[in-house]
Amino acid sequence: MTAPAFVRRLALPPGLTRWLKPLLLAALAVATIAVAAAYVFPTRTWIDQRAAIAETQASLDALDAERDALAARVAELDTDSEIELIARTQYGLVLPGEEAYAVLPAPERPVDLPTVWPFGTLTDESPLAP
């Protein structure tokens, strides 16, 4: 009894059946590498870019805060009272009609040398000293 036509297998040449399984495995490996190249590697790049963007955003936020602080300091320095304070404290300037006095620091104390050798000879009155 013969099998119906739709059930019969396709007859392949005998040399082709020996290479069919390794050929299909190689095709599957190439397809897997193609999928990895198309989806996995760009995903890693995308994740790295997200990390770089987050780091840059944190740096930008810090710079914005510093810029705001400097803008506030500029506004503070633009007042007459702050200008006068800086002129008096840092530059010693006075308004017309005022007198400025500078108080100098006390002189340094002389160095007390020990009386043991070799320092004792420095303080002794020697006959060779002029």
Describe the structure.
The chain is mostly helical and about 130 residues long. The chain is built from three helices and no strands. The mean pLDDT is about 80.
Provide keyphrases for this structure.
62% helix; mainly alpha; 3 helices; elongated
Helix and strand topology:
Elements: H1 14-77, H2 80-91, H3 120-123
Number of helices, counting only DSSP H or I runs of 4 residues or more:
3
Broad structural category: mainly alpha
Q: What is the β-strand count?
A: 0
**Termini separation (Å)?**
144 Å
Strand content: under 5%
* pLDDT averaged over residues: 82
Unreliable spans: none
Percent helix: 55-70%
Largest sheet: none
Rg is: 46 Å
Order of helices and strands: HHH
Globally, the shape reads elongated
Task: Kindly summarize this structure in a few lines.
This protein is mostly helical and 130 residues long. The protein has helices at residues 14-77, 80-91, 120-123.
